[in-house]
Amino acid sequence: MQTRQSIQCVTTLHYWLHLPEGYAQGGPTGSRGSWPLLIFLHGAGERGDDLERVKLHGIPRVVDEGMDLPMVAASPQCPADSWWSLELRALDALLDALLADYQIDPRRIYLTGLSMGGFGTWSWALRRPSVFAALAPICGGLDGPPSAVRMVERLKDVPIWAFHGARDPVVPLEAQTRPVEELRRLGGPARLTVYPEAEHDSWTVTYGNPELYAWMLAQSRPGAQPG
What we know:
alpha/beta, 8 strands, 8-stranded mixed β-sheet
């Protein structure tokens, strides 16, 4: 079950919040009463003030379809005519509120997004590289000129699993191969799954794959503190 929530900061963000089964009884075994947190950033087509649109794809959709997601999940909506990379302060405020109000394990905060949200995943992680235990950007990439790829050095210790369609006509595959290859050159735990026949929709198969969530849950930042 997901509920509607809002946070007022620089921008008002409305978001879906999923609490896992058993949340009220405390965290999963060995968690000291806290749960992993997954934040999902949608694509450009879901912007606006109709929160139902955020359920069209990704995490809110698979939760509504009955996936047993053993973590807290927050899925905010980007305002109309904006872009996730312009809403990073609002996302910071959202994360801070979630940590303050819910039983969240700060060592296990995961970030994923598709298309515009895939770009937002890279951008927000670069802004707060000490926060996220794992990233899963889908059909996204880095904003800015090719030289911006050097910035990913900040993420060389963060496990990253990126996904892209080889035939994507909207976001070139190179947008993700460049940062992933640079991270691998630096010795970082980054990998890229390319679907040979997929076009822009590389998210349906990805979010429907239980291996993604098992991989996320295996990632943790020992002693991590939000920063």
